[in-house]
Amino acid sequence: MTLRSLLFVPGDSARKLEKADGAGADALILDLEDSVAPEGKPLARTLVAGFMGDRPRARRRSRLWVRINPLNTEHALTDLAAVVGAAPDGVMLPKADGPEEVRRLSFYLDALEVQAGVEPGSIGILPVATETAAAPFRLGDYALAGLARLRGLTWGAEDLSAAVGASTNLDVHGAWALTYRMARSLTLLAAHAAGVQAIETLHVDFTDEAGLRASCRAARAEGFTGRIAIHPAQVIPINESFTPSDSELDHARRVIAAFDAKPGAGVVGLDGKMLDMPHLKQARAVVAAWTALAPET
Ligand code: COA
Ligand code: MG
Predict the structure, then answer these.
(1) Are residues 174 and 104 in the same domain?
(2) Within this chain, do residues 217 and 237 fall inside the same structural domain, yes or no?
(3) Which residues form the domain of 195?
(4) Which residue in 163, 172, 211, 246 has the most C-beta neighbors within 10 A?
(5) C-alpha separations of 226 from 143, 285, 289, 295 in Å
(6) 31 CA closest ligand 1 atom index
(7) Where residue 295 falls among pLDDT bands split at 50, 70, 90?
(8) Is the domain of 162 the same as that of 269?
(9) What is the pLDDT of residues 199-220, one digit of tens each?
(10) How many domains is the chain partitioned into structurally?
């Protein structure tokens, strides 16, 4: 299933957890990492496990993911031990250095799923794959690593700028500086190379709906298929932006029909324009994206 919107919810806030349940997000990311202070982590683990336990997989309004703490911290195994029994749909892994960390997490999940009686292999993994200085160099390796649990790749600019001691991640015009644009593009390519979702990072100003919609449009046009949200108000604009429009679907179906009408043809004409294999591939991707959403819409 394609996840268009993934809404972060601080795991230590019972109020936000309840509020998030009705936000309409394709997935919630129940956070145990940076939105929770160290002293709040035990409470967050309890609240997050309880929230998921009250909502068995078959009755969830949103898929329920958990962002654990980085694997090299003292918190990560405690996080996993606390939440796997409540059958999260997936685990977001922050500050991942490369595919080996995803493999290590996958082994932990293999064992914990069996212990907890959760369907083996059913918990997905979404690494935040650009948050350390080393991580961007490894992006292409995800495609070669054979990671069955990998569902997507996403990127983040805040931790990466902290990792390199930068005082800003923006250029003089207020756009992402080159380092972050590069990390973003490599994430997009790496996700498609691995055959998983490319997930755009967050839009930090949650009152700026017009800016959010414009940047979602740009991201989708480039090949991203979903986006992180940090506030319930961002969910509907993100869902709408990452859903193919009626006219896009109609056009895609006409492209496919034009090729179907000429079996064996590598190139056809439609509305006075040449169409070849990349157009057919794109049209099929649009229809597939819609099909992946269809049960929800
Ligand atoms: N999930 C669920 N509910 C949320 C929410 C979220 N991410 N963000 C805000 N809300 C709720 C608030 O509790 C509030 O409800 P209430 O009035 O019934 O209490 C309502 O939505 C409106 O919130 P608002 O006043 O506009 O925002 P805020 O100042 O309370 O919160 C943030 C702003 C940024 C602190 C908050 O949106 C947030 O916690 N976001 C997620 C942060 C996070 O997880 N970061 C980690 C990844 S970068
Ligand atoms: Mg972070």
Answers:
(1) yes
(2) yes
(3) 5-241
(4) 163
(5) 19, 14, 11, 17
(6) 44
(7) low
(8) no
(9) 999 999 999 999 999 999 999 9
(10) 2
